[in-house]
Amino acid sequence: MNHKLRCIVVDDEPLAQQVIVTYIGRLSHMELVATCDNAMEAMQALQKDKIDVMFLDIQMPVITGVEFLRSLQHPPRVIFTTAYPDFALDGYDLNITDYLLKPISFERFMKAVNKLSEAVNNEEHNTPIPDHFFVKEDGKLVRVNFADIDHIECMKDYAKIFTKQRMIVTHHSMKKFEEVLPDQQFMRIHRSYIVSLSSINAIFGNVIETAKGRLPVGANYREMLMEKIKVD
In this structure, is the dihedral angle defined by the CA atoms of residues 64, 70, 76 and 82, taken in order, positive or negative? Predict the structure, then answer.
């Protein structure tokens, strides 16, 4: 897991809410995004931000935690908090990560968080890593494999993708390429160029040489490039 887990705490009891907030504050890999007194506030928080885990009280006014969770089409991971152990079966029917019975000790909280972290890690490792993307060329969608790319040149209104086989001209922004291409394999070296690191044959001065030509290295990118390819 290489990012902080973004959390919200949903509980109508201020003291119970504060206990979870305090526990979250002790952990560097967790980030509190919002505290909510009821399901409506929780719904707003979920719509506003990307939330990884929701600490959800079961007994709340108007709508219970169980009812609220059942109403969500794409809920985050959920850890129930409650003073009523009878709700445990309902919780596990809803595929929650864990179930904390009040009063909650830090030791028990940590056990739930460890279970959560393990589940997130397993999910990340099981997620297929993309190895291609599609762009429009002459009215059709064309597959571009990461492994085939030598470099990309971005103009104002269009981009040229230089692959091992040919050149593809498409309407695609530099920002879009940076979002889709993996950092481990590609690097922006100029305001107009992205290069595949495995395609670099030589570097001399502020120029990179690949099989498809010579590319300029912008002054703002040279130091990062040297660091990336581990050159002193």
Answer: positive
Q: Tell if the pTM clears 0.70, that is, is over it.
A: no
Question: At 79, is the secondary structure helix, strand, or coil?
Answer: strand
Three-state DSSP at 220 gives coil
Among 97, 74, 71, CA closest to 5: 97
Q: Tell me the per-residue pLDDT of 28-57, one tens digit each, with 9 for 90 and over.
A: 999 999 999 999 999 999 999 889 999 999
Residues 209 and 202: beta-carbon distance below 8 Å? yes
For residues 174 and 183, is the Cβ–Cβ distance under 8 A?
Answer: no
Q: Which of 22-26, 40-44, 85-89 shows the lowest mean pLDDT across its residues?
A: 85-89
Question: Is pLDDT of 87 > 70?
Answer: no
Average pLDDT for 122-132:
72
Rounded to the nearest 5 percent, the helix, strand and coil shares of the chain are: 35, 30, 35
The widest CA-to-CA distance across the chain, in whole angstroms, is 71
Non-local CB neighbours of 230 within 8 Å, separated by 6+ positions: none
CA distances from 108 to 77, 164, 167 (A): 17, 55, 58
Tell me the C-alpha distance between 127 and 106, whole Å: 31
Tell me if residue 150 falls in helix, strand or coil.
strand
